[in-house]
Design a protein that fits this description.
Length: about 450
Amino acid sequence: MTRVIHTGDTHLGYRQYHSPARRADFLRAFRQVVQDAVADDADAVVHAGDLFHDRRPGLQDLQGTVAALRTLADAGIPFLGVVGNHEGKRDGQWLDLFADLGLAVRLGPEPYVLGDTAFYGLDFVPRSRRDDLTYDFDAHDAEHAMLVTHGLFEPFAHADWDTERLLTESSVDFDALLLGDNHAPGIEQVDDTWVTYCGSTERVSAAERDDRGYNIVTAGENDDVTITRRAIPDNRAFRFVDVDLAPGEGVERVRESVREHDCEEAVVIVNVTGDGDPISPATVEEFAIDRGALVARVTDKREFAAEDADTDVSFADPDEAVRERVRELGLSQAARDVDETVRASKVADSNVRDEVTDRVQALVDDDLSAFQPAGDEADAETDGELEESESVVEESVAAESPTDESTAEKDDESTPDDTAETKTDAASSQNDGQLSMEEYQ
C-alpha cells in the first residue's frame, strides 16, 4: 500500500494585498502540510505545481521552503513535484535546485516507484504546444501508476485540456491524475481513471471561500485507489460580509454588517448588492481597518449611470468598460491576444514579457492572418487608434520590471491561471513536429 499527500498551488511568496503578513500566511500553510505528512508518516508529499507564486521568489521564501523540505527529508519522506505556470522558467527550475540538494524529486516521463506505485510528472504545457505533445512515458512494473501535472483539465470548470486524449494516447495506464492549477478541490472519473484537484493551501482569491486543504491518496490492493480530503486550519481569518441594501439604505447599513464580525487581524471582504444608495468603498474599508482588520476590500456590484457624462459609464465594473473600448478599436486577433495577456489574464507579472513573446511567435509560425485588423471597415481614425493601442501594449510589456513584490492582486475570480511561458526546443521540429515527453522535460 502507498499513501501520499497530494498538495499544490501553495503560491509561496505571494504578498497578497501587498501585505507581508499574508506572505507569511502562505508559508505557514505549506509548513502545515509538511507537519501533517510527518505526523501521519506519509510515504511522500506530491506537489502538483505552483510551489511559488513567482518565478523569482525572494530569499526569505527560498529559505522557508528549504527549511520545510529539510523537515521532510529528515523524516525520510520524499517530496515529488512538477513545475506550474506561475513558477516556470526558461532555464533551470527551482525544483531542479532542490533536487540537487537532495530535498526533492522532479517527476517526469521516467517512473519514480514508491512502494507499489509508479509516479510520473508533466510540467505545465501552454495550450499553443499541446497539439504537438506526445504522451510517451517509460514502462514500469508497479501495481499502480499516477500522473502528476498542472493545468485545467476536463471535466472540471474552466477546462482547456482534453483529459480523454491524454489518457487514450498515453503509453501508460494511469489509475489517477493528481492535478494542480484549479484552486477548487474536486474528484471525478474519466475512463475509469480518477482525476482530482487538491485545491490551494491558502486563499489566493477573495472568491475562494471554501476551506483550504489537500488530498490523501491511497493505492491499495486489488487495484483500489482511494482519495480523501483534509482541511487546513485557517492561518488568517477571512470575514465575508455580504450586504443586500434595501431602498433608502446606504453606508451606515454596510457599517452595521461589518460590526457583526470580528475583524481583528482578519481579511474583510465586503460585497454590496441591492437597490440602496451608492456607497464609498473607501469609507467602509477605513471603518473595517479601524476595527482591527489586516486588510479590507469592498466591492459594490451594482451599476450607477454617470448623470453628467456623455457616455454610459459603469462604476461597478470599470474593467468591462475597458474591454468594450478594446472591442470597438477593431484590433487584430494578435493584438487582442497580447492585450489579454498584459491587461486581463492571470499570468504572473514577472512572466508577462516572455508569455507575450511566446504567443506572438506562435501566431507568426502558425497564423499570419491573426495580424489582420478585425473587419475591412476600419477608417483612418480607427487605424490611428489601433496603432496607439498597440503602442500602449508594447510600452506596457517593455515596462515590466519583475520583483518579488510586483505580483498584482487578483481578487475578482477563483479561476486559476491558464497561460504561462514554456521552453523552446529545437528538437520539437523532429518527429513530425511532435514533442516527446523527454524533449519537453
